[in-house]
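pasting for ref
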Amino acid sequence: MTLNVRPYGILTALAASLLFIGGVHAGAPQVKTQAPGYYRMMLGDVEVTVISDGTFPMDAGKILADITPKQLDAELGRSFLKEPIEMSVNAFLINTGSKLVLIDTGCGSLMGPSVGKLLSNLKASGYRPEQIDEIYITHMHGDHLGGLSADGKPVFPNAVVRAAQQEADFWLSKAHMDAAPKDAKDSYQSAMNMLNPYVSAGKFKPFNGEIELVPGIRAVPSPGHTAGHTLYIVESKGQKLVLWGDLMHVAAVQFADPSVAIHFDTDSAMAVMQRKKVFADAAEHGNWVGGAHLSFPGIGHLRASGTGYSYTPANYSALQ
């Protein structure tokens, strides 16, 4: 019996050796894509879904002010980053139970192929664009309102769009566009192109000052990055989420030192003051915070750390 078994074992080993030598293997090709970009959590009775619009490369040294190249490299290195950094673009879908509200809409087609994924990720999350009741814009830069319209038509046909009156007065003014430097005119034109379909349909309704837009969601002025930059605060059952818009851009630098400004702030001194105030409030009260350019899903907590702050992202949960 032993003599009958051995030849089969030898042949099997020989065949395996020949396959190895010949380079034959069963490895699958690399997929090289992420899962659909959405993250869901409950805030009291309110459902919050963070929707990724994608990421884009950004040279932090070109946008940050008041920091030397050596300091920047050191700060990025502490977060295991180097230039160019990869910037997330996040939007926030709030389901209050009676209203479905989208805060910011990503880049659309304005900033290249690595972004503009909000619509596909919204659908992957279980929602459809026609279900959106209201859209709140933190400010009218292209990476926040670029997903509003496509080919001159509203992407969210049933939604009312809201933003601060100061933003509308600034970005939707042809006189301001005509007076702007040549390299800035496209930003005005993009804002007009994105909002005009809603303006024409009577579905753009700007607001003034601090105001509750729907029960549980409040707009709070935070000027500096732009004249009408707005925070949106979501509250339910004693829990609070403060959505920052562009209150900060580069977490590896601006958490440790909130005084580092952005070159394209409308009023850098005001933006720094707002950032310091909002960071201090978040750390003191332990509220949830959400940032458009925090690494996806861009939601977590702040804690005071020395002269700056440390950021703790949300602990992943599959339980709702």
